[in-house]
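Self-study notes.
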Amino acid sequence: MTEYLGRIDQQIKIRGFRVELGEIESKLQLLSGAEHCAVVAHEAPGGKRLVGYLQQTDKAQITEFNENVLLQRLAVELPDYMVPATLVVLAKLPLTPAGKIDRQNLLAPNWHELDDASYIAPEGETEALLSQLWKTLLGVELVGRESNFFALGGDSILALQLVSHVRQAGLLLTPKDIFEQPVLKQLAALLQKITEQKVQLLPTSEFSLMPIQQHFFSQQPAEPSHWNQHVCVELKQGMNVDALAKSLHSIVAHHPALRLKFSHGNKGWVQQYTDVISSDLLWNCKIDDDAEFSALALELQQSLNIYRGDLLRAALIKQPQKADRLLLVIHHLAIDGFSWRILFDDLWSAYQQLSTTQEIQLPAVSANYNQVIEQLNIWTRTLDMQQQREYWFAQGSSSSSPSSLPLPIYKNRRTVSVKLGIEDTQILLRKTVGQLNVPTPNLLITSLVQTLASVDKPDLHLYLEGHGREESVFGALDLSRTMGWMTSLYPVKLSWSAYAETCLESVAQCLNEAQQHGGIGYGAVMSYESSKRSVNADITFNYLGQYVDNGFSHWCKPIVAGGPAQSDLNPMLTPLVINAQITEGQLSLDWEYAHTHHTENEVSQWANDFVVNLQQWLGRIGSKTEVKADLRLLEPLNQPCGTEPAIFCIHPVTGRTTGYQLLAERLAGKRHLIGIQSRSFIDDGWFDASLSLMAESYYQTIKSVQKQGPYYLLGWSLGGALCLEVAAKLEADQQEVAFIGLLDCYVPGFEVAEDQWHSPKAQQKLMEHLSLLLSPLSQYQSQQCLKLLNESSPELWPSQFDMWLSTMPVSRHMAENARQVLFSWAIEQHMRAICANYQLARVETNVESWWAANPEGRAKQLSSGLKSINSLVSNKIVNSDHLGIVRDEDVISDLIARLLNE
C-alpha cells in the first residue's frame, strides 16, 4: 500500500513554523468557491509573506469577490501565520508546459500599496524597538503590534534577555511585565522612559492639604515643626562632605515635596512650594562621646521649620572609636515610608555620580504632590458623601480615650517590646494565607481583638494605616517616583467573640469594608466635613510588613539612634500605639503607651497575652487541612466560545501557564482554554506544602467553575502529574473525565539531574540569569550568593537573597528584577523538592501522552514509567525537547484534531 504524503516541495517555513501550502490552498478553494487556487510565499519587507491566488473567469463573480471577508473566514479555520497577507484574483493562473500551475510566474504584489490584513506594523519608537528586539531574540521575521511574545517562542530565559536589552535602551521593564502583558502593543504601553519624561510645571500659588496632613494640624500640636521621621546609619565607607552636601541639595531641588512651606489663614492650613533651599542642609560634626551625640541629635530634630519650607536636614558625625554616622531628619509632612525608599535611592545615586565626576541626573518625578491632591479631590467628588459619613462615623468611639482623658503628649510615652519566635514567624508568613485564607495583618488584628476586648467590652476601636497610593483612586497617575506624606489613616470598629473562628470572620468582614480603596474614603470625608464632628479611636495598630533594606546597606547600616522625632509637648495619636514589623525573620511588636493612661504592668500583660493568642492561631494552622477553591489561580488563555467545556491547562514546574499560549491562539474561537497557575505568583511568600494539597486546590477550583463533567485536562511537565491527581479526584466524585493530555509528563524516579539544585549546572545557570540583570558578577559575588542559598531551603531563598543583594551597588529597578528571577527559581526548586518520594496517581480514564525525543532514550523511560501505572490510549514521541514540546507543531496539530474531534 502506498501512502500519499503530498508535495514535499510545497512545505515551507514562515515565522518559525512549518507550513504546508497545500493545506492552505484546500481551505482557500473550499471557502472561496474559486475554480483553482494557489498559495505562494514571496519575499516582503520584514520576511516572507503568503499570497493567495484565485482563478475565476466569471467577471461578475470577480466583482462580487470580498477579500476581507474571505481572509476573516480563513483566520477562523487556520492559525494566523497560515493566513495569506493578501489575495489576488486572476482570470487564469499561469501554467507550465506540463499543465501544472507555474508558481514562479505568480508575481508578488506591490507590498507598499497593500493594507496587510494579517500584520499591523508597530507604532512609535517604543513599539518599533520592541519589535526589533523580539525579531533578534526570537529569530522570527515579522513582529507586529498584535504579536504575542510567548506564542512566537518566548520563554522565561528570553524574557530575561529582553529585560536586559530594554534596560540598555533606557527603558524600564520587568520580567513580570512581560508575563502579564505579552502582546507587543500592550507591553510597549507599560514602558516608562527614564530620560524623556516631561518636566511638570509647579503651581506658584497655595494649594490644599492631603487628608493625613489635615489630620496632623487638627491635633493642634504645640510644636508643629518638630514632628519628624528620621534615619540614622553607620557608614561602611568614608563619605566626601562636599559631595554629600551637593547630593542632598540636588534631592531637595529635584523633589518638590521637600520644598513645601505651610501657613495658616482664613482658609485654614495651606501649603505652597518654595524655591528657597537652606544653605546648611548638612552639618559636618565632630563629637567626643554619646552624650554629645544625643545633644546634637536633639538639636538637629528641632532645627526644621515648616513655615519656611525647611523640611530636611542631615548631620555627618565623626566620633572617636566609632564608625561615622549619618543622621537624616525630614519633617513627616513631606515624607512617608514609601518616600524614604525613593530618597535613599536618589541620595546614593547622586553621590556616586558626583564621586565619579559626573553630572547629577536623577529619574524624573513621576507626579508632583499637588497633582496627587487634585486627583484625590476629583475622586472624592465621585463618592456618595452621605453614605460615607454614616459609615465612617459608625466606626469611631464615643470618647477620645477609654477614660475620657485628653490625648496624652509624647513626654508621657513609654514602650514595651515583645517578639515572636523565628519559627512561629515563618509559619505566620508562609502558611497564614494558605490555610486560614486570610492575610497576615488580619490574623494579627484578630489576636489583638482577642487580647484587648472581652464580653464586658466587646467593641474595639482602632486606627489603622495604609500606604495611600491606591491605583483605584489615582488611576493613571504614576506615584512610583512621588515623595510626600500620603498615608491613609482610618478607624475601624471590631467586635469580640468567644469563638475564635467567628472573631476571625468578623474581623475579615469589617476590614474588607473599611479597606476599600485602602481606607482613603475616611480622609476624603473628613476633608469635606464642616460639622467638626470627631471620629476617634482608642488604639493605633500599624503593621509595617517585612523590613527590606532597600538596597542601600552596601554603604551603610541602619541603627536605632537619632533623638526624639516628636516634641515632648506634641500629642500622641492615641494613648496606645502598637507597631508590628518583621525584621531578620522575626516579628517584633513595640507597644507605645502613655503612662498617664496605662500602667507598665497592664501593657506588658497585654503584649504577652497577644503573643499567646497569636501562637494559638499558629498551632491551628499546623493541623488545618481544609482546602478551598481559589478562582485567582485561573488564567483565561483565550476568549470563551461556544458551549463545549473549557480545557484546563495546569502549570509546569515553573508555575506559569504562558507555554500554552500558542495552543490557545490556534484554538481561539473553537475551544476555551483556562490556565491554572501556581499560587506563589499571587500571594507573596506562598510556597505549596505538597503536590496533593496543590491538586486538591486545583480540583476545588475547577469544580467551582464547572459543576459537572465532561472535564478536559491538559498538563505539561509537573502539570501532567497534577492532571492525574485532579482526574483521580474527579473520578472519585463520579464525574466524567473526557480527556487527559500529558506533554512530557513528570514521572518520579526519572528526574533530570542537572535541573536539580544540587547540580553545579543548575547553580551556574541561576548565576548566569542574574548576571543578565545585575551586569557581570564576579566569581566572589556569585560564590557568596550561592553560599547563602545553599544554607537554606528554597522557601527561605527570597530573604537570604535580599541579604546578599544588599551588598550589591545596584539600582532599585535592577534589584527588583533580580528578586523576581530569584523568586521564580525558588518556586521551581521548591516544587522539585516536594516531589521527593511522590507516586503518580492512578486513573481509570485512558491517558494520551506526547514525549520529547531529546535527549535520546529518555522518552521511552518516561513512557514506560507512566504505563506501569496508567493506561495510555496514545503514546507519541515527537522531535522536540522538554521546553519546546508545548509549542511543537506536530503536538499542536494532534491536540487540535483531538480536541475538535477532527
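Second protein, same conventions, sequence then structure:
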Amino acid sequence: MKIKLYQTLLSPLLVAGLLLAPLPGLSDSSAAAASASSKATASKAQQLQVVVDGKKLSLSAAAYAEKGVTFVPMRDIFTALSASVTWESKTQTIIGRKGNLSISLKVGNKQAVINGKTVKLDAPAVVRKGVTFVPVRFISEAFSAAVKWDSVANAVRITSPEAAEEAEYNEWLEQQKNRPKLTSQQIVEKYDESIVMIMTNRGQGSGVVIGDNLILTNYHVIADAASATALSLDGEELKIIGVANYDEKADLAIIKTENMIGLPAIELGYGLNTYKGNRVIAIGSPLGLQNTVSDGLVSSIFFEDDVRYIQTSAPIDHGSSGGALFNEYGDLVAITSSGYSDASADLNFAVSVIHAANLQSETTDEQIADAKFLPPSLPETLVGASLTDIEKLLKDQYSSLSTNDGEAAFTKWEAKQDAPGWLVLTADIDPLFYMYYGPKSAEELRAWTINLGYEFHRMLPDVKIQVVISFQRDYGFEPRGFAAGEVASLGSDKWRVRFPVIDMQLKDELFIKVRD
C-alpha cells in the first residue's frame, strides 16, 4: 500500500456533492422520539458534544441541533480544524481559509462560496445572543474532514484529514512490522533484471526500469547526453530516445526507450519504512561492472535543500549513479548518486525514492510522447565566438567544483589570444580551499581541468589551448620559501603570493601539471 502524502486541497465539486446531508440522529423526528417535551429537547441540546480528532471541544457557547442541522460557534470549529477565520461585522460575512481553500458565508444566506464557486446550504449561519453559529457538517466537510454522529455519546465526531492520514500511516507502520525480511540473494533474484547499465556519449551510469519504456536514473547521467543506450542484464541493447521528465534539484530523470523494454517494472513507493541502522542492498554498474551487488547499512538520513538523502555504507563507485538501493523488505528506497572516493569509511549517498515517486506522478502522457534529449549545457562549437563569449561560458559553467572536501571556487576567468596563437584561459582558485585541501584534492582538480580541456578541444578542435589556474593571496609580511617571481611587494609592507596551481596545454596531445 502506498502512503498518501498530506494534502488538504479539496475540489469544490466534491464539496458541493457532500453539502449538509443531515446528521443521523439529529432530525426533528429523532428528537421527538427521544423526548416528548420541548423542555427535554432543550436539555438534550445542551448536552450535545463536538469531538474533533478524539478530543472534546470546549465550546464558547453550547452546540445545538435545529431541523436536522447541527450548529457550533464559528471560531471554535474553524480553530479546531486549523483554519483561520475572519468575521466582517459590517456585512456579517464569515471568511475561513486553510491552505489553498477559501470559504465564505453570510449570516442568513443559504449560499456559500468555496474557492470562488457558489454552493447551496441546507441552513445558513446564524447569530444567537451575540455568538455566530455555523453548520458543522458543511464547515467540516469543506475542509475534507469526516463527520459522524455518535448516538450513544450524543456527540458529533469529526476527523480531520491530517488525523485520518496519520492514523492510516500508523496502521501502515504496524503492518510493516509483520512483513518478512528478504535475504540479499532473494532481493537480487527479484530485482536484478530490472536494473540496467546506461551508456551515453558522455559516460556510463545505471538505471531502474519503472515502466514499459521508462527508466529512472540520475539527472547528471543523462544531462549533457546527445545519445544513449540501456544494456539489460541479458545483453539486449535498448536505444534511449530522450528524457520524459526530470528534477535537477533532486538529481533524477525519467528517460524513454525507443521500444518496449520487456522487463519487470519496479514500483516507486515512498521509502519511509527505512531507518538509520537498517540493512540495505545496492545494485548498479560501478566502473562498468554490470549489476554489481553490495550491501551495507543506512548510515544516516538527512535533508539538504529540501531533498531527502540516505547515507549508506553500501559500496558504490563511478558508474553506480542511477542504480537502486533496496531495504531489507525488498522495497526500492533510494537511487544511488554520489560518494566520497578517497575516504577510509564507505561514505555514499542516495536520493530518496520519494522524489522519484513524485516525479513519476507528475509525468504526463504528453511528456512521455515528446521525450527528447535535453539541450546541452555547452555549445556544439565555439568557432567564431568572441573572447567575451568564451569568458561568459567559463564563468557560467566552470565557476566551481564539488570535491570530496567541499566546494572549490574559481574566479576572475579571462580568455586571451597571445602572439604565438594560443588561446589562454586563466582563473584564480579560492586560496583558502587550496591551502587547506589543495594536495588532497589534486586528483579531482586534475580530472576537472582535463574535462574542461576536452570540451574546449571539442568546441575548438584546431586551436592550441592553455588553461592556467593560479593561487593568489596578499599578506602583511614577506612569505619565504617561494620560487623567484612568486612573491611581489605591494608597498606599505604588503606582499602578494601568486603561482600557478594547474597548467594544462593541449591540441592534438595533452600536457598537464598540478602543483600539490
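Instructor comment on the second fold: The CA atoms of residues 20 and 137 lie 6 Å apart.
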